[in-house]
Design goal:
- With about 290 residues, this protein is an alpha/beta fold.
- Helix 1 (about 5-15) packs antiparallel against helix 2 (about 20-30), helix 2 packs antiparallel against helix 3 (about 60-80) and helix 6 crosses helix 7 (about 125-135).
- The protein has helices at about 5-15, 20-30, 60-80, 80-85, 95-105, 110-120, 125-135, 135-150, 245-250, 255-260, 280-285; strands spanning about 55-60, 170, 175-180, 190, 205-210, 220-225, 230-235, 275-280.
- The strands form two sheets. The protein has a six-stranded mixed beta sheet with strand order 4-3-2-7-6-5, with helices on one face. A two-stranded parallel sheet has the order 1-8.
- Bound molecules: zinc ion (2 copies).
- The site of one zinc ion has 8 residues, from loops.
Length: about 290
C-alpha cells in the first residue's frame, strides 16, 4: 500500500481527521522524491553521541522550501484549517520567511515558531504542527544519505540523524529484531528489546508493556516505570517504508490514548536540540516575494 492510499484509507475510517490528512497527503510524494537529495547539509565530524544534523550548516533549496510551504498552507486553508495556516494576506511571503519557518521547525525553536504564528494569524499549536512538516522532505533525504553511508552502532533512543525521539518501535521478522523509527526523517536503527528509549534503563523490573486484548493487533505499547515514558511498538515482517510512518503513527493513535490514560508520556521536545544553522548561500537569497 502506498503512503497516499494509506492516508486515504485512514481518512475514510476517521472522517474527523480528513482535513488534516489532506495536508499530510500533499507532503507524501515529497518524502521519497530524489529531487530533495540535492544540497545536503555540511555536517560536523561524526560523533558517537550527537546526531548527524547537530550543529550542521543547512543549505536547503530555498525555492523548493518556499514552494512546499505555499502548497501546504494552500491545502490547509482550502480545508478550512486557518488556525494552522493563518490568513492568506498575513502569511509569510518571501523565500527568507519560508527558510525561517524551516529552520525554526528543524531546531524546534518554540519562540520563533510562536512569533511566526502570531504574524501569520495562526494559533501557536496549529502553526507548529504545519511548520513541522516543512523540513521533512529534506530530512528524509538526509536520512537516505546516512543510511547509504558507513554507520557505527547507535545505542541511543533519539534519532541518529535528526535527534527526534522515535515515533514507534518495530519488531521485525520472525526473529522480532527491535528497530526504532523516526517519524520526522524516516531513519531506523536497532535497539535491544529490554532498554527504555528515553532513560536508557535496562532494568527489566521497571520496563513493561500494554498489550491489546485483540490478539490480531499489530501494535502494543512499551512503558517505563522509572521515567514514565511510553513508546508504541508494532510487529511487522519488513521495515515500514519511510513515507508511510506518519500514516502508521496516526492509524495507531488508540495506543497513544491507552498509554496517556495510564499516566505514561512522551517527552515534549526532541531528544537532542540540533542548533543547526543556515548556510550563507541559503540565507542570502533575495527577500523578494515568491508567492501570492
Ligand atoms: Zn530523525
Ligand atoms: Zn525510562
Amino acid at each position: 500500500m502506498s503512503a497516499r492510499s494509506r492516508l486515504d484509507t485512514l481518512a475514510q475510517a476517521r472522517p474527523e481527521w480528513a482535513a488534516w490528512l489532506r495536508v499530510v497527503r500533499e507532503l507524501a510524494a515529497d518524502l521519497s522524491d530524489p529531487a530533495w537529495d540535492a544540497n545536503p547539509p555540511r555536517t560536523a565530524p561524526a560523533s558517537d553521541r550527537a546526531p548527524l544534523l547537530a550543529g550542521a550548516e543547512m543549505r536547503p533549496d530555498t525555492r523548493a522550501i518556499a514552494r512546499l510551504l505555499e502548497r501546504l498552507s494552500g491545502v490547509a486553508r482550502a480545508q478550512g484549517l486557518h488556525a494552522m495556516a493563518g490568513e492568506p494576506r498575513q502569511a509569510p511571503g518571501t523565500p527568507a520567511d519560508a527558510l525561517a519557518v524551516f529552520m525554526a521547525a528543524l531546531n524546534d525553536d518554540d519562540a520563533a515558531l510562536a512569533m511566526q504564528a502570531s504574524r501569520a494569524g495562526a494559533s501557536a499549536q496549529g502553526w507548529r504542527t504545519l511548520a513541522g512538516l516543512l523540513p521533512m522532505p529534506h530530512l528524509h533525504a538526509c536520512a537516505r544519505r546516512w543510511a547509504a553511508g558507513p554507520r557505527a552502532a547507535w545505542p541511543h533512543g533519539y534519532c541518529p540523524v535528526c535527534g527526534a525521539w522515535p515515533t514507534f518501535a518495530e519488531l521485525r521478522g520472525v526473529e522480532r529484531a527491535r528497530h526504532l523509527r523516526c517519524g520526522r526523517c524516516g531513519a531506523g536503527w536497532p535497539m535491544p528489546v529490554l532498554a527504555c528509549t528515553y532513560c536508557a534503563t535496562t532494568d527489566h523490573d521497571t520496563l513493561g508493556a500494554l498489550v491489546a486484548e485483540d490478539k490480531k493487533a499489530h501494535f502494543s505499547v512499551d512503558v517505563c516505570h522509572r521515567c514514565s515514558g511510553y513508546l508504541k511498538s508494532c510487529t511487522t515482517l519488513q521495515a515500514t517504508p519511510s513515507d508511510e510512518l506518519l500514516a502508521a503513527d496516526l492509524a495507531s493513535v488508540e495506543f497513544d490514548l491507552v498509554a496517556l490514560e495510564r499516566g505514561f508520556l512522551r517527552p515534549p521536545g526532541p531528544g537532542v536540540a540540533l542548533r543547526a544553522t543556515l548556510s550563507v548561500e541559503a540565507a542570502s537569497m533575495p527577500a523578494r516575494r515568491w508567492w501570492r
